[in-house]
Structure formats: structure tokens, C-alpha cells
Design brief:
Blueprint lengths: L7 E7 L22 E7 L3 E5 L5 H14 L2 E6 L11 H7 L4 E4 L1 H13 L4 H4 L11 E3 L5 E3 L2 E9 L6 E6 L4 E3 L5 E2 L12 H13 L5 E3 L2 E2 L8 H17 L5 H11 L7 H10 L3
Parallel strand pairs: 3-4, 4-5, 5-6, 10-12, 11-13
Antiparallel strand pairs: 1-2, 2-3, 7-8, 8-9, 9-10
């Protein structure tokens, strides 16, 4: 077995882009926009692994510059879940770093396939001309697993979070969990793919992450001013429990929106909050 080197990690947070559909507004008058995106680079002495690339051509250029500044060779890319905002630009990075492969679990690959099929209904409406051509380039995680310079990088399947068949990437040697959209950090959560017992399933997924006893947790959507604190697991749990409590009374969407906004006044981007209210409480 290859002798392991010491790893570290870095996070690049990309600002949320506004929607081109400027006539669409939230109940408080704010515009529709994407939440800030966090891209993670796990660093060895020579090589690096990118987790959850972004979705626009401009973002891919910014991430590519960031990788080059690291001075490391990009070994491969890992995608934690199927949402297009966390991988649509992977092909642009492969063009820039030839030979790099993209890995995901079989469940995530199926979700990625669905994201391609529906991109025109969401992403291309809100961000026309900004997203590159996308093909399903991800390969299943190899049987021998993933590693970086002798260190295990372990995909952990956690089930439903803000979408189906999601994973986190666990790096035991440095106590890191790259959590994708399973954990949020100071940003309103995307709930509208979680009808029925979906939010309860998400709570179960958080227990699985917590059982890994991470010392750092990187959220796929985060406020760049906040640390990658494992406390974000419980903060995400608290947000879900408040949402479940409010949803039980079947309020009007605007009432749910206003109450969650009151409970979390410092959270960034109320767009997913309003879309969740409208989706879960449509009568």
C-alpha cells in the first residue's frame, strides 16, 4: 500500500447568480436567485481532488483558475448528488484538465441523468446561454474505492436529503465530510423535493453524517463568512424540525415563508424558501 501523505482542503464559495426571469419576485419583493455554491478541493502534496464542480461556464473558468493556483495536479472529480448546479460544468473542467475522470455512485449517476433531461425546464430558463452542453460523463466509483496519495476518500450513501440518492464524501484522515446539499450553512434550505416523509428521511441522513464524527463539514450551499463547523449538522436538523412543525398546520405558502424568514433572519437567499413553500403547500 502506498504510504499516505498529509491532506488538507480548501473551499471556494461562488456567489449566487440572479435569475434572468426578472419579472419573478419573492413575496418580500426580492429577486429570484441561485444560492451561493461551495466547491471543495482536497489537497495532497502533489495531487488534488475536486468535489462538486459548479454549473456555469464562467464559474468553471473561475474554479479552473483556482485549481491552477493551488499548484496541484487535478487527479479526479467527485460529485455528491445529482443536482445540476453541482456538476453541469464538469465537462468544461475536463477540457481544461485533460484525462481527469468524474466519479459518482450509481444512484447519483441516475439522478444526474434526470437532471440532464429536465435542465431546460429550470436551469436554461433562469440562466439562458450560461450553462455549457452537458453529457453524462460520470463513472461509477471503482470497486477499489477512491483515494488520494494513500488516504481513503470514502463516498457514504445517505439516501434522501434535499434530493434523492445523495452521498457525502468522508476523508477520515483529516476528519472532513464534504456534505453536498445534505448540510446547509447559513443558507435557506431547498425543501420542495421532500413531500410526504422526505424531511424525516433527511433527518435520518443527518444522523448518518453525525455518526462519522467529523471535525469539519463543508456544505454545498454556505455563507462564506461562516466556518465549516460540524455544528451545521444540528443547525440543518433544527431548520428541518421547524419546517416540519410549521407544515403540520398546513399554512398558506406566504405564512410559511414569513415565519421561516423570521426564525432565520440571517440566512442567505430566500428563493429556495419561497419555492419550498409554494411546492409543499400548493392547494
Amino acid at each position: 500500500m502506498t504510504e499516505s501523505t498529509s491532506l488538507s482542503y480548501d473551499v471556494l464559495v461562488l456567489d449566487g447568480d440572479p435569475s434572468a426571469l426578472t419579472e419573478m419576485r419573492l413575496p418580500d419583493g426580492a429577486p429570484i436567485e441561485m444560492s451561493p455554491l461551495a466547491v471543495t478541493l482536497i489537497l495532497g502534496e502533489r495531487d488534488a481532488v475536486l468535489v462538486d464542480p459548479p454549473f456555469t461556464t464562467d464559474q468553471a473558468r473561475e474554479v479552473g483558475d483556482w485549481i491552477e493556483r493551488s499548484g496541484k495536479r487535478l487527479a479526479y472529480i467527485y460529485v455528491t448528488h445529482g443536482h445540476g448546479d453541482h456538476w453541469f460544468a464538469a465537462g468544461e473542467l475536463i477540457k481544461r484538465f485533460p484525462g481527469v475522470k468524474v466519479f459518482a455512485t450509481p444512484g447519483t449517476i441516475e439522478e444526474m441523468r434526470g437532471a440532464i433531461a429536465t435542465r431546460g425546464e429550470v436551469f436554461d430558463l433562469h440562466f439562458p446561454g450560461r450553462i455549457p452542453q452537458v453529457s453524462l460523463i460520470a463513472e461509477p466509483v471503482p470497486a477499489e474505492g477512491l483515494e488520494l496519495e494513500g488516504n481513503v476518500l470514502q463516498p457514504v450513501e445517505i439516501g434522501h436529503t434535499d434530493t434523492d440518492r445523495t452521498t457525502v464524501l468522508h476523508v477520515p484522515s483529516i476528519g472532513l465530510v464534504v456534505a453536498g446539499d445534505a448540510v446547509y450553512n447559513g443558507v435557506h434550505q431547498h425543501l420542495d423535493e421532500s413531500p410526504g416523509d422526505g424531511l424525516q428521511q433527511w433527518l435520518t441522513a443527518l444522523d448518518k453524517i453525525e455518526a462519522l464524527a467529523p471535525r469539519a463539514v463543508v456544505s454545498g450551499h454556505k455563507n462564506r463568512a461562516l466556518p465549516d463547523d460540524p455544528a451545521t449538522i444540528d443547525e440543518t436538523r433544527g431548520y428541518l424540525r421547524n419546517a416540519i412543525r410549521l407544515l403540520e398546520s398546513k399554512p398558506e405558502p406566504a405564512t410559511f415563508f414569513e415565519e421561516m424568514a423570521r426564525l432565520y433572519p440571517d440566512h442567505l437567499n430566500r428563493t429556495p424558501l419561497w419555492l419550498s413553500a409554494a411546492g409543499l403547500l400548493s392547494h
